[in-house]
Write a structure and sequence with these properties.
Oligomer: single chain
Distance between the termini: 74 Å
Number of strands: 12
Radius of gyration: 21 Å
Number of helices: 12
Largest sheet: 7 strands, parallel
Low-confidence stretches: none
């Protein structure tokens, strides 16, 4: 008697254009699973994005992530559910905060009701709070939430995390993944915008070094981030925390690298936390830069967000590329692009 090959799993992924990781993840997923086994739930207002994926053979379900009935109908017969928060930008509105929280509840409840075998909840290191003051990097066994959220995005991520953990504590098959700040030439997160502002020499932007710049942030390239998320999807354990990270770098190292590549020093240096918070209030009045120095960025730059990714590297035999060198290459590409754009504008 011939053994039948196991059927490929049916996969559900929540994708939004305001979460660039979810878009990149969905695009790469077809390299591992057939597109016709993948259902993408896309916000009903993102028809262009939906059409792009539909042309590649994915099953598309347009809807509102805040509507349980929309989520529930898309989740029927799905074996694996992958959730990304719909909004990952720092300057989230109150409505977007609520969308993150409500969509978390909807997706996890519907997945459990429909007997999904695995639920992957993709969160962010910002949800856990900064590295403790004893200097220990955050790892998969240690999370130290700050007494209260430092900024709105953190609040929405933390409330969503509480929902996922409540189901996990009831022994449902949930895997929680914390991700770091990612970098690529395509991205539009706060770090990418800070780099753009630095290279463009934009006044009232976030391109100011605060204090001594010794605080750390963990950075991973977008390609590496998506690759490890797919590895966890294929071989990760349920009822487990995974902390994904690249290289821990200080803000001084980032600004030194920017100065070396661009030939320009930082737009300025802000001596301490009080001055930084006052400066952010003043800058918010002018708002001449898309990436103005605001409270969220100040709190990120004043705290440590270092990650110990040893567990993930060992379990998946995964080694991310040298993140700082990749960051340097990306900045060089951005500078070349801006220089060429300026040259074309000058000639026209």
């Amino acid at each position: 008697m011939l053994l039948q090959e196991p059927k490929p799993p049916k996969i559900f992924v929540l994708v939004t254009k305001k979460n660039f990781v979810s878009v990149k993840f969905a695009k790469k997923l077809k390299n591992v699973y057939a597109p016709n086994t993948i259902t993408l739930f896309i916000d009903q207002n993102s028809t262009t994005l939906a059409e792009e994926f539909e042309q590649q053979g994915y099953t598309i379900h347009l809807g509102n992530p805040r509507r349980y009935d929309h989520i529930e109908s898309a989740l029927r017969d799905k074996d694996i559910v992958v959730y990304f928060p719909p909004h990952e930008n720092l300057n989230v509105s109150k409505k977007e905060v609520k969308t993150n929280i409500i969509s978390t509840q909807n997706v996890i409840e519907a997945a459990i009701e429909k007997n999904a075998k695995k639920i992957f909840f993709v969160s962010h290191i910002f949800a856990t709070g900064p590295t403790p003051k004893n200097g220990k990097d955050v790892d998969a066994n240690y999370r130290n939430p700050s007494p209260k959220p430092l900024f709105e995005l953190q609040r929405s991520l933390r409330e969503s995390l509480k929902i996922a953990e409540a189901f996990l504590m009831r022994y449902f098959p949930i895997t929680i993944i914390f991700t770091p700040v990612y970098i690529s030439t395509e991205c539009h997160n706060f770090l990418c915008e800070l780099i753009d502002s630095y290279l463009k020499r934009e006044r009232f932007s976030a391109a100011y070094l605060i204090g001594n710049g010794k605080q750390k942030i963990n950075i991973l390239t977008l390609d590496d981030l998506v690759d490890i998320l797919i590895k966890i999807l294929k071989n990760g354990k349920t009822m487990q925390y995974y902390l994904v990270g690249g290289q821990n770098v200080t803000w001084k190292e980032i600004f030194d690298m920017l100065e070396e590549i661009s030939g320009y020093p930082p737009l300025g240096k802000i001596p301490n936390a009080f001055a930084a918070k006052m400066t952010s209030r003043i800058f918010s009045v002018f708002r001449k830069s898309k990436n103005t120095l605001n409270r969220s960025i100040v709190e990120i730059m004043l705290n440590n967000w270092a990650i110990d990714n040893t567990n993930v590297k060992n379990e998946f035999d995964w080694i991310p590329q040298a993140t700082f060198e990749a960051l340097k290459k990306i900045v060089e590409e951005k500078k070349k692009f801006f220089d060429e754009s300026s040259s074309i504008a000058a000639d026209s």
